Amino acid sequence: MATYGPDQRALFESRSSALYEELVSAGSFALTDERLQDGAELRPAFDLLVDLGLVVLDPEGEHWVAEDPSSIQGRIVAPLSQEGTRLLDESTQWAKAFGSLSQAWRRSPAATDRGPIAYLRDAAIGPYLNALVADVEEELLTAQPQTGRDAASLAAAALRDTAALERGVRMRTLYQHSARRSSVTHTYVAAVTARGAEVRTLDEFFNRMIVVDRRVAVIPAGDDLRVAVAVREPSVVAYLVDVFERAWERGRPYTNKDTSMMRDIAVEQRAMTIRMLIEGHADPQSAKRLGVSPRTYAGYVADLKEEYEAETRFQLGYVMGQRGVSGTERTTDTPTD
């Protein structure tokens, strides 16, 4: 039986669903419909509907007609749920199998002979993190700036992290506010919070970090995400935990969709954009610090230009300077006429 992943779901959500609704409204599509021919823009979305069984030929073979989605959903969703359950159970069993080995390692001289700091490169990072999280006993702290992880890596993280949560591990994760606009991040957060994890977002930039049981911290080696540093020195780990706790206190709960809080988040992102402009950072760097794409950041700047009736960035800076705007205000600065 065919299974469907994130790519097919994205196409289904963005194109196929609207096409299906149009078909239901129209009653049928002719075989000669130009939009459904080879090479047409909507052809991949239509092919997916046919492959799913949501669209079939009528008995005369002259028109495409819609099928009841309730009769199709179970066939598509059930295998994914079953596979997720199987993988989660398998990962839990592997974690248990490695548990005694990890305890033996920590008691051995070799665990300290290799020193308090280890460098991990490229392909070695993922397996190390998986093993580290599988070994967590009490608490997992993670800071994830930006939303650059793709659906596949987030799905793998969800399986890994939910397995830890099922064992009773406490978990807190910190994202930037921009993560609230990521559908794949929404899926991940829903999976972990359903099992007791806490997730918050923050406006300011911070570095990626994972801390396991307050004994091991994994951080990037500078700006090169291809190299990670595993730190076991207690004083350094305690310092990093303190940095996390301070950021956590300023964060806002991810699952809180209250209108006033969402308005506050928009104000914080606007203020951060103003600070980036005033400090003179290049657009790519500013976008990175906000956790958004350069195109989205350019949109933020364009909104500020419109708000302050400025045609250029120079004019924008001059007007904000005249009004004493610094980006540290806690309320929206509304331009005057």
UniProtKB/TrEMBL annotation:
This is Unannotated protein. InterPro entries: TrmB-like.
